[in-house]
Design brief:
By secondary structure, the chain is an alpha/beta fold. It has an eight-stranded mixed beta sheet with strand order 3-2-1-4-5-6-7-8, sandwiched between helices. Helix 2 links the parallel strand 2 and strand 3. It comes from Roseisolibacter agri.
Length: 317
């Protein structure tokens, strides 16, 4: 099929390449002309570049046209979907493959429906490995829109008959992806905590002992209950740098974890693991530590407990 790919970052460029390898004709656009040139160069004859959204839509030819959006969630997606909606015609399809909030996807679909443009929300997992391994795709939308998109979905997925599915109406795809990422938060947090405990164990009995974390990860990769792709990646990182000394202990979040926690609260569903995993990320970014300073100050005030003073530079001596 012929498909437009908007956004050629790490995910979008690889997805364009996988579609091209699968025999699809891809029209690729990014705000960066360098990204467009790189995508065309990397993927070869089946990828054609576009210098603007108008050019992309024109090069898609006769309808129904399909434009797949892979730009950051929030305002970039909002602006891109709105611009495409104004350029496309009734029957055409806009796919949001990013990590949008499912409620925003429902609203965008309603806005496009006024022009007869169909909207599909495709929760996409696979990261930078998706080019080789295929992507896990959780797709929400109308049956006819999914049918129009099916050839691309079968190519992007690990196989035509697995790794992707139509999970419900518009919004369901991004809802499923949100929960997927919430689970991911919890799994990664447990793994990080386990390796941290191993890292801090410095004696075994009376003898000094330090675990070789890469060795332990490698052992667990084969036959253990916790073997997984995440563990494969942990082993890879530890083989590269067993102390992770070049990585600052600061963890970002892109929104899906907090959306999952908010949804759990709204539905009265206890989700302590995902919630604590989110809080751990927030705490990793709290360089000021005012809450901990307040705790120490309160203990000092009511009980005279000692506090550890900061240096003149504001750091702990």
């Amino acid at each position: 099929m012929r498909i437009g790919m908007v956004g050629l970052g790490r995910m979008g460029a690889n997805m364009a390449a996988r579609l091209a390898r699968g025999g699809h004709q891809v029209v690729a656009f990014d705000r960066s002309p360098d990204a467009v040139r790189a995508a065309v160069t990397a993927a070869g004859a089946n990828v054609e570049g576009a210098g603007a959204l108008e050019e992309l839509v024109s090069k898609l030819g006769a309808g129904p046209r399909v434009a797949w959006v892979m730009v950051p969630a929030g305002d970039p997606t909002e602006q891109t979907v709105a611009a495409l909606g104004a350029l496309l015609d009734s029957g055409d399809v806009v796919v949001d493959g990013g990590n949008s909030n499912y409620q925003e996807s429902i609203r965008r679909a309603q806005a496009l429906r006024a022009r007869g443009v169909r909207f599909v929300d495709a929760g996409t997992s696979g990261g930078i490995w998706g080019l080789a391994e295929g992507y896990s795709l959780m797709v929400g939308g109308d049956d006819d829109a999914i049918a129009a998109l099916r050839p691309a979905l079968e190519t992007l997925a690990p196989a035509a008959d697995r790794g992707w599915g139509h999970v419900g109406p518009v919004g369901a795809g991004h809802f499923a992806k949100m929960i997927h990422n919430g689970i991911e938060y919890g799994m990664m947090q447990a793994m990080a905590e386990g390796f941290a405990i191993l890292r801090h164990k410095e004696t075994m009995g009376d003898a000094p002992h330090a675990f070789d974390l890469a060795q332990v990860a490698e052992i667990w990769r084969h036959g253990s209950v916790v073997r997984s792709w995440l563990l494969d990646l942990a082993a890879r990182a530890l083989h590269e740098d067993g102390r992770l000394s070049a990585i600052a202990p600061v963890v970002a979040d892109s929104g899906e974890g907090r959306w999952t926690v908010a949804e759990a609260i709204a539905l009265d569903v206890p989700a302590p693991v995902i919630t604590h995993a989110l809080i751990a990320r927030l705490r990793s970014r709290d360089a000021e530590g005012f809450g901990d300073r307040m705790l120490a100050a309160l203990r000092n005030q009511f009980g005279g407990h000692a506090v550890q003073k900061t240096s003149a530079t504001g750091t702990t001596p």
